[in-house]
Structure formats: C-alpha cells, structure tokens
Amino acid sequence: MVRVKKTGLIIAAGLLSGCLAMTSPGAGKTDESASSFSSRFGFSQSEKEEDPEADAANGPGAAAYADQSKMEEGEGPGIEDVTMSERFHADFGLYELSIRDKYFLYSNVSNGGVTDQPVYLEIPAGVDYTAEKDGVPFSYASRQTVSGRGTYVIRLTVVEDKNVPLSEQKEYRTVFRFRIDEKTPEAAAQAGGEAGLPEGMGLLPDVIPSGTRETAGSQTGEASEPERPEETEETPAPEKIPETAKAAETGASLHGDDGEPEQTAAAGEQAGAVKRSQEYLPDQSMYQVTLENGFTFLSNIPEGMAVTQAVEIRSGEEYGLFLGEEELEWEASRQLRAFGQYRLVSGDYEFDFEIINSYVNRDSYTAPVGLRITKATFNGEGLDVGNGSALAMTTDGSYELELEGQAGESFSLKLERDTQPPEVTVEVGRQSAAITYLANDINTITLSKNGKEPYEFTSAEVTGPGKYVLTVTDRAGNVTVNEFTLRYHMNFYALTAILLCVAGIAAAVVMLVRKKKNLTVR
User: Fold this and answer.
1) What average pLDDT values come out for the chain (522 residues) when binned by 10 residues?
2) Separation CA 449–CA 51 (nearest Å)
3) Domains parsed from the chain with CATH numbers
4) CA 270, CA 248: separation in Å to the nearest integer?
5) Is tRNA-binding one of the keywords UniProt gives this record (predicted)?
6) With contact defined as beta carbons under 8 Å apart, do 308 and 337 qualify?
7) Looking at the DSSP assignment, which residues form a beta bridge with residue 427?
C-alpha cells in the first residue's frame, strides 16, 4: 500500500511540473535583436533588460502588472510673473533692482542694458536662478564677472514664504537681461572723455565698498533713467567714482578697440591695478591673457569662444578650473576635450570658454571678442555674415564658419544644427516590445521600469511585464521619451492544459484513496 501511494504522488508531481514548464511565457525563446543592435551602434556588450528582482505576484493566471496608485498632490504654489523696479545710484555707478521690495539685486548694468564692459550681478540668498548666454544654459555664481560678447538672460525665482503650506505659497518669477558687445567706431568717438564708461551706466568694482548698500538705500532722490544715454551730462564726472571702481575699470580694456580712450595715469598708479589684456602670439599660436590681478596664462582660444576642438591652457601659477560646477585638478599644461562650460578662476577674476559638440541645437553663433566671422556657408551655399559679430542659424543643416582676428589668427568651425528629437518607434506586442532606432546620431539610451532608477539600455527588445520609460538622447541634446506597458496575457490553450493537469492529479488521488479502502492486510 505504501509503495502504491508513493508511486501515485510521483506521477502527480511529474504531470504538474510538465504542465507548468509547457505553459511558462517565453519558454525556449531567444533574443537575437540585442546582438544586431549592439553591432549596429558599436556597443561592446548587451545588458539584460529583465528586472533582477523577482515579482512574487507574477504567475500563471495572475495579472503581472498592477497600476500604481498615484500620490495625492496638493495644489501647488501660486505663480506670478513680476517686473523688477530699478534705481541708479550715480555716486557708485550702481543699479539696484528690487523684487517686490523685499529682495534686492545689484549690478553695473541696467536690466535690458547694452555695454562693452564686464558685467556681474549680485543675487541675494533665497533667490533661485538660472543663466543663459545666447540661448545656451551655463553655470553662473552670484557676483561672477562675465565679459564674453553675447546676450545674457538670468531667470530669477523666489518663494515669498516657504514655511506656509505649499498651496498657500506664492512664487514670483522675473528676468534680468543684458548684452555685452563692442562699440562701433562712431559710438567710441562720441564716448570721448568718458574713459571707457558705458553709456548710461557707471562701473561697479569687483568688491563693493563697505556700506555701499546702506548708503545707496539711504538716498531719497528720484532714480535717474538708465535707458536715456542722452542725459549722461547730468551724471557725475568720472572723478567721483570711488578709486576701487577705477581699478575695476582698468580690466575692461580686453573688450575695447585700439581707438578707445587710454586709461588715466592716476588709475594706472593705483595699487594692484593691472590692465586686463589678451594678445595673440603668432610664433606660439597662443593667446597670452593677463587678468586684472596680474595672473597671466596662455590659451589657444580667446575668451568667450565656443569651439569644437580641444582647448589648451598653460600657466606656471596655480588657478582654479571648473567644468560646470565640478572643479578640475590643476596642471601646469593641460588639454581639455570634455564638452561643457569652463571657467578659469584666479581670485575674483575669470576667463570663460565652451567646448561644444559639432551637433548643436542653437539659433546663432556669436564670435568672441577680437574675432570676426569672415565667411559662412549653409549646406555648401554662401551666407551673408553682416558685420561678422554673429551668425543666425535658423534652419537645420550643416554650417561652416571661418573666423579671423586682428593679429591674423584664424579658426574654422563645422556645426550641424539639429533641433529634431531622435526618431524611435516602439511596437508593443502581447509579451514583448520591439524597438527601432531610426536616428544615426544617438548619444545615450536609458530604460526605467516601474518608476525605478533608469539604467543604460543597449537592446532592441524589452520583455517582462511592467511599466517602462525609454529615453533616447541624440548628440545635439534632443530627447525622445517613449512610455509603454507590458502585461501578462494568459494563453487559453495554456489555461486548458493546466486545468487538465489539475484534473488528472485529482483523479489519481481519488484512485489511490479507493485502492487503499479495497486493500486488505493479510
């Protein structure tokens, strides 16, 4: 009797395991698309797209995907676009800008102003901001001096009271913008005895004298109109500008022409006052740059230039070098190739440049100070370069530019303007999704499953139930996002087979029970 019972159980277990193996999804299936995709885009190995964590709720007859409940979100803060008020304090050459008369910013240029001098903006704590130059985001720190020619936009955001509930908060948004450009010869001649002061504005020293804010805030007179350069006769004479401001003024010579007024002897004799300069050395094919604090180094590109080539920096003295917010290790001579915004920092002074991808998503290219665009083509056809200060890039395609400097230096750039997101198709089947990549300039691909952290993805097929987000980025920074869901679908024939297996097991058990009752012990 015992032997018969054991034999029946073994037969039942075998039937059940065989049924489950026969009906498991994807049994015997191989993935050949991953290897073909890897060979096409040059990936060395493929990553398995299955989630390493087993889903205990999955199984025959069970729904593998359950919709995730969304967190209840309260009503967000009220958003209001505001315009900053502005006052000009002539005694200090200082513009005071106010957000709701609570947050005060200070700059040496008016909001919407144009100047040929270096510019910086002091932003108080509690104000969040982002910065763009010619439509391209870059990293900016409060009181950072910028001097490259171009249009700058600082977007400011402030929350009135962060201690109240989110639904009761008020968020104010505003914009500070200005442009740095060279004066035309006519404008430079009209500037005459102003010693390089921009029209309608004074100079702000790199370190604001102690008590500047309190003094400015105590004035009760009406603010002058910074947008009216014709009223500059009423502006106090340059000799009223603090000596520290004159020292800062000496650093503006990098952005002037030979025809600009010479610096006064009194300013040149001040302690620590060094004329900022940038001179091209033909024998070395390098620029010798001297900052206001006397720090000197060599660079193969001028300040403020965006290039697709490697940048070389040489200096025997230590300096700070930043790629975005990341500080790089100092080297006496180094080659820089990584894409991004760079800042060379020495004391309170900076030298900025950018290494860009040849694939770009931008509307224009601006020549740096000291260079002019002398020739440009679009898809092989010549373009009008105007005065050579900037080239509009309004249509996707291939642009070639040639730039020349006063010392005979020249640069060539080839840029591919691409504003279209990469084309990707996802065909979702019953138990898998087939992905087709139609773009030839893909940079990165990531896949996220069920809201988890995205990971690098190198395959052309996704299997396994779940909610997926596929993100594809091209070399120009354009992004395509595809969201899709795979659910477990029960096969009718598989379900029938399982039921038959269960019925067979039940019949075997019944037969064993009946035999047990009929057996007699002798």
Assistant:
1) 51 54 46 45 42 41 36 59 90 90 92 90 90 86 85 90 75 92 67 42 35 36 41 42 39 41 41 77 94 94 94 93 92 91 93 92 90 95 92 93 93 94 91 90 93 92 92 93 84 72 83 69 50
2) 8
3) 32-49+421-486 (2.60.40), 78-259 (no CATH), 278-417 (no CATH)
4) 11
5) no
6) no
7) 434
